[in-house]
Design goal:
The complex is a heterodimer of chains A (187) and B (165).
Chain A (H helix, E strand, L loop, with lengths): L2 H12 L3 E4 L3 H10 L4 E3 L7 H10 L5 E6 H6 L3 H7 L5 E7 L2 E2 L5 E2 L8 H7 L5 E5 L3 H10 L4 E6 L14 H16 L1
Parallel strand pairs in A: 1-2, 1-3, 3-4, 4-8, 7-8
Antiparallel strand pairs in A: 5-6
Helix pairs in contact in A: 1-2, 1-7
Chain B lengths: L2 H11 L2 E6 L6 H9 L4 E2 L5 H13 L3 E7 L2 H14 L5 E7 L8 H16 L3 E5 L8 H11 L2 E7 L7
Parallel strand pairs in B: 1-2, 1-3, 3-4, 4-6, 5-6
The chains are: A alpha/beta (187), B alpha/beta (165).
The structure holds magnesium ion.
The site of magnesium ion has 7 residues of chain A, from helix 4 and strand 5.
Chain lengths: 187, 165
């Protein structure tokens, strides 16, 4: 299974959730599969999906799912200690770990070599870290969404991409409709 | 009241409820005040671009954010300022310690000081330079302006403002 297979299976589970989605293909795939105002697509700024998700989760009540990648977490590795030390129980971080920088042509990341992001997250102090297979990802995310504990999920999958169109929504429009959803859920 | 306390008071008065910080000696008093304030959630970040991500999330969560950092951070955060804060039209007051100005004792700090205003200018970021202690009285207006305009703004606070090294 590659990332887009996971996203396809995940869509029915997350369609109603606040989702902060990583830059590049993950956002483009989610946008193509199931565009929702409750999705915040990152159009730039590699690495910050987990930071945006944590900032959002800490400051309002609704559940927040960040869909991140291994390359992106490696870019912003400082995010894991911040998450560990400022837990938000409405925050779920899904790291789709395909061992490669998918959006730039599948160059290998260190997460596909000697570095275990699961072990890194635990060493950073994250209490609830689950590593799962691609096949078990939807069940793991579903369970985490039902619970009330901050959860980091590292989903090990194969690398590979599908052809997807770019997102043509204006950034302020993505933000505006997302903020309206946040307001609605906190009303 | 100390300058640091006046700054924290201004943040609270202007309903800034989420602050992230990367430390600087000059900002130590403000950071302490932010941490102690019951009206502010303080989340220290490991790098300033990470902090700007946290602030973007806080803003979308309905809270007014602020980042407190050193001017060296401008070199780290240009991409984030352009492709996140500005591209999505989010407000972000940046309270910045302006190292490398008159009175500086560490020569290397001057190397970023000479670029600081030029970089902010290149990014079209409205910039306010606090040089005298009384300049702190502009904080309220700057914060109000920032949240009105939905843009990042920079407050550069130099050594003279803080009363020297
Ligand atoms: Mg990857």
């Amino acid at each position: 299974m590659i990332r887009s297979d996971i996203l396809k299976e995940l869509v029915p589970v997350i369609t109603d959730e606040l989702v902060v989605c990583n830059i590049g293909l993950p956002s483009q795939e989610l946008h193509m599969l199931d565009d929702q105002p409750s999705n915040f697509y990152m159009l730039g700024t590699m690495g910050l999906a987990s930071s945006i998700g944590l900032g959002l989760a800490l400051n309002q009540k609704a559940k927040v799912l960040t869909i991140d990648g291994d390359g992106s977490i490696l870019t912003n590795l400082g995010t894991l200690p911040t998450i560990a030390n400022n837990p938000a129980d409405n925050f779920i971080l899904l790291i789709i770990d395909n061992g490669s920088y998918g959006s730039t042509g599948d160059q290998p990341t260190y997460a596909g070599k000697k570095t275990s992001l699961t072990a890194v997250a635990r060493a950073c102090g994250c209490d609830n870290v689950i590593e799962c297979s691609a096949e078990d990802t939807v069940a793991t995310v579903t369970e985490a969404l039902k619970g009330d504990k901050m959860t980091i999920i590292v989903s090990k999958c194969e690398s590979g991409n599908v052809k997807v169109p770019v997102i043509e929504l204006d950034a302020p429009v993505i933000k505006h409709r997302f903020m309206e959803e946040v307001k609605r859920r906190n009303a | 009241m100390s300058i640091s306390d006046q700054i924290v008071d201004s943040l609270v008065r202007n309903k800034v409820e989420f602050v992230t910080t990367v430390p600087c000696k000059q900002l130590a008093g403000v950071i302490e005040g932010v941490e102690a304030s019951p009206d502010i959630m303080h989340v220290p970040s490991n790098k300033e671009d990470e902090g700007m991500g946290l602030c973007a999330g806080a803003w979308m969560g309905g809270k007014r954010p602020c980042i407190i950092m050193q001017n060296t951070a401008i070199g780290v955060t240009i991409n984030t300022l352009a492709t996140l804060t500005q591209f999505y039209q989010m407000p972000l007051p940046m309270l910045i310690s302006y190292r490398g100005e008159l009175g500086e004792r560490v020569a290397c700090q001057v190397e970023m000081a000479v670029h600081t205003k030029a970089l902010l200018d290149q990014l079209n970021i409205q910039t306010y330079h606090f040089h005298r202690p009384e300049d702190v009285s502009e904080m309220d207006t700057i914060l109000n302006h920032t949240f009105m305009s939905r843009k990042p703004t920079a407050i550069l606070t130099d050594s003279n403002f803080w009363g020297g090294y």
